[in-house]
Amino acid sequence: MSAGRRLIAAAASGVTAAGATRLAYAALNRVPPGGTKTWSRTNHRGEPVTLLEGPAVALGAIAGALAQAGLAPGAGWRSGGAMAAAGAGAAAFGAYDDLAGSGDRRGFRGHLGALRHGEVTTGAVKLGGIGATGILSAALAGGSPADVAINAGLVAGGANLLNLFDLRPGRAIKVAAASGALITAGGALFSGSASRTAAPLAAGLALLPEDLGERAMLGDCGANALGAMLGAAAAASLPRSARIALLAGIAGLTAASEKVSFTKVIERTPALRWLDMLGRADASATDRSAENNPDQTPPEE
After folding, report:
1. Is 40 helix (H, G, I), strand (E, B) or coil?
2. Percent helix / strand / coil, the chain, rounded to 5
3. Which end of the chain is more exposed for a tag (fewer CB within 10 A), N or C?
């Protein structure tokens, strides 16, 4: 495919994703599945938000990925299908945890610890389901057994890691945007291949104002879907050496999250704090009082 056609496909993917996301969000808010209360939560400042941003972003991103695949015959269908599968599976298991989970257990340590005592948490089900989603997505993309294993790790690891940033308004979408830019640059630099990040990025950015305005949040459904699709985009765009390095970085950050509060690191780093606050309302006394235990969001969230 020529460079011009790749650009057109990416642009069409982004426009489709953004438009589908806005339409889905409007439709879901008009008739929320299970009722408005089912999707209502309280954020870190005690403000009411809706989780409907998550399924809207997932639906929009999947629509965009399929649109790009339709304009890229051949191998494009494989990578597009792999991205759609990654988004759909991660969104489904994330939504299950959003709606059925209690939030009593957090992180790999919490869920695996519960399993050792015979308790199957919704988070454990989600982790297993997203792992299976990663394998399915990687198998659809194809490649050698080594590539399938690496790509499965990128999808599952990306889904889990991005969700760890969904603790403050707009943070996860900003991290997704930065990650997408790096994947796009890496694909152009290392392999000259077309990046497939347009769909998940456009879908997330389409609802960034609602997220920053504390009217809605991604929840596990949206954050897991965006992270999984960015992982699938990396799998389709980067050479093996770059994918191994990226997977190692994801694993390292995930392991660090069990010991280190990302929010505390952001709060203590001026540049990161500035980026984190960009577009947000000024931190209230409630927000500042949470700094001693910043990653402990309310159980509903």
Report:
1. strand
2. 75, 0, 25
3. N
Strands (E), 22-64: 40-42, 48-50
Task: Give residue 79's pLDDT.
Answer: 84
- The full set of domain ranges for the chain reads 3-292
- Which amino acid is residue 40, in one-letter code? S
- pLDDT tens, 13-53? 999 999 999 999 999 999 999 999 999 999 888 889 999 99
How far is residue 219's CA from residue 223's CA, in Å, rounded to a whole number? Answer: 6
CA nearest to 212, candidates 163, 277, 164, 290: 277
Residue 50 in 3-state DSSP? strand
Residue 192: left if φ>0, alpha if ψ -120 to 50, beta else—which one? left
Q: Using CB atoms within 10 Å of the CB of residue 279, give its burial: 0 to 12 exposed, 13 to 18 middle, 19+ buried.
A: middle
- Mind giving me the DSSP string for 71-137? TS-THHHHHHHHHHHHHHHHHHHHHHHHHH--SSS-HHHHHHHHHHTT---HHHHHHHHHHHHHHHH
Residue 116 CB neighbour total at 10 angstroms = 7
Termini Cα distance of the chain: 44
